[in-house]
Amino acid sequence: MTWLVTGGAGYIGAHVVRAFRNARIEVVVLDDLSSGHEEFVPDGVPFVRASILETDVVARTLEEHNCIGVVHVAGFKYAGVSVQRPLHTYTQNVTGTVSVLEAMQRAGVEAIVFSSSAATYGTPDVDLVTEATPTRPESPYGESKLIGEWLLADQGRATDLRHTSLRYFNVVGSGTPELRDTSPHNLFPLVLEALAQGRTPRINGTDYATPDGTCVRDYIHVADLAEAHVSAAKALAQGRDLLPVYNLGSGDGVSVRQIMDTMAQVTRIPFEPTIAERRPGDPARIVASGEAATRDLGWRMSHSLEQMVSTAWEARQAAQG
Ligand SMILES: NC(=O)c1ccc[n+]([C@@H]2O[C@H](COP(=O)([O-])OP(=O)(O)OC[C@H]3O[C@@H](n4cnc5c(N)ncnc54)[C@H](O)[C@@H]3O)[C@@H](O)[C@H]2O)c1
Question: What's the pTM value of the predicted model, to 2 decimals?
Answer without folding.
Answer: 0.97
